[in-house]
Amino acid sequence: MAIRINAFIVTLATVQILLIVAYSILTFHDGYGDQQKLDTARQKQLDLEASLREPTPAPQEYQYGQPDLSFMFDLNMYSYMGMCLTMTYLRKYAYTSLGMSFLMGCLAQEWCGLLLQWIPLAHCSYLQQTFKQVGCPYGDNPDISQFENNLRALACTCNSFSDKIALEISDFIKAQYGVVAVLISYGALLGKVNPLQMMIIVIMNSAAYCGNKFLCVDYRGGVDGTGSLYTTHIFGAAFGLGCSVLVSGHRPHENPDNAPRYQSNNYAILGSLFMFVTYPSFNCFWAPAELRMYVATNTFMALIAGCFFSFIWANFIYPEGPSVMHLQDGVLAAGVAASTPACMFIPPLLMMIVGAGGTLIATLSFRFIQPLIEDQDTQAKTLPAAS
């Protein structure tokens, strides 16, 4: 029996071995910190009972041990179930789309999980080398307000390469946003690249996403309230279109394989439903804890309005009526449009208008812009992001 070996499998195995070695050397599991929080919470509860002299229910582990666990479940469902299923609409590419989306999502998850912490550590090491001669005259825990130079203050307070990366649940959740950006880019490349090319693109895409997020948010202080607008959706759309322009070349404008079939449309709309129910969690994670209730309700109101108006706008704009692709893009565009105003204290009426407006822009873009960029955007995945 001959062993089948090709360049993709060899490269994939090599990359995975390197990632395993990197995780074993650079990271450790920060489980003690969670257990310490739980023990502290239990002790506070015992002290409270002693002061009141009446028994009260003991704190539950899910309340204190892993507060972000529910976000991890929801974002896993959003990316690996929702986005991967929406890739299956092509009639001759459904199985490959689903399998490659799953595989490349896992690769992006591992790579982003390292880079999102490694890049700030590299920046910290650079700052410490730059300000090494100046020193930190205010002790180990200086008051940052006493520094005349913000970079000097950061050099005296940040963690460098001498410290290992402590892996927590929040780190995996942050990497999920990189997975979403990668899958948005992949939507523009369906059927155009082979697995080896896609793996190389994913590695570069993940690195570019992490670098862009660090520069825009951490270094320059940009505001991305829900962490999903310009650092995830817009970046993924721009990167995907750029790669698609490079690899598309001269292709026929009308491709008979760039069409769905009945079964694949069913899977695609199922993926949109998964994304619909988990979108509030997707927008909530980066929001401050006191604003998460407003973000969730605002996002949900925009999604509901987007669902209604995706049918309404499509009937007005398309003589043949709405299709599955119109409904998918319209509803998701409503969630993307709600990403920034979701953190604001605005009434539900305005959020419903935002959802309806985002759906209208996506529907018009699908009608008038998508035919012009069909060769570069196979799935029209960049239209909701750009809307």
Question: CATH superfamily, please?
Answer: Ammonium transporter AmtB like domains
Domain count: 1
Distance between the termini: 53 Å
Largest sheet: 2 strands, parallel
User: Portion of residues in helices?
Assistant: 55-70%
Q: What's the order of the H and E elements?
A: HEHHHHHEHHHHHHHHH
Describe this structure in words.
- With 387 residues, the chain is mainly alpha-helical.
- It has a single domain, classed as Ammonium transporter AmtB like domains (Ammonium transporter fold).
- 69% of the residues lie in helices and 2% in strands.
- It contains 15 helices and 2 strands.
- The chain has a two-stranded parallel ribbon.
- The longest helix has 37 residues.
- It is globular, with a radius of gyration of 23 Å.
- It starts with 6 loop residues before the first helix and ends with a helix.
- About 4% of the residues have low confidence.
Helix-strand blueprint:
Blueprint: H1 7-26, E1 27-29, H2 31-52, H3 61-64, H4 69-86, H5 94-130, H6 150-157, E2 165-167, H7 169-187, H8 195-219, H9 229-248, H10 262-284, H11 292-317, H12 324-337, H13 348-368, H14 370-373, H15 382-386
Parallel strand pairs: 1-2
Helix pairs in contact: 1-5, 4-5, 4-7, 4-10, 5-6, 5-7, 5-8, 7-8, 7-9, 8-9, 10-11, 10-12, 11-12, 11-13, 12-13
